Amino acid sequence: MTQRRLRLLLAEGSPGEAAVALHSLYAGNDPGLDLTVVSTIATLLATIKVVDPEVILLDLALNLREPMDAVHLVHRTAPGVPLIVVADTSDEAQTTRSLAEGALDYVLKGQMDAHTLERVLRTALERNTRKGLTDPLRDEVTGLYTRDGFLTVGMRRQEEAMPDGGSLVLLCVLFDNLQALRKAFGPGAADRALGDVAKLLKGCCRRSDEVGRLGEAQFAILGVDAAAPNAEVMRNRLEQHLAVQNQARSPSGPIDLRTSIGSWSPQDKRGFAEFLDSIESRLRLPPAEMMREAAQQVRL
Question: What is the CATH number of domain 138-299?
Answer without folding.
Answer: 3.30.70.270
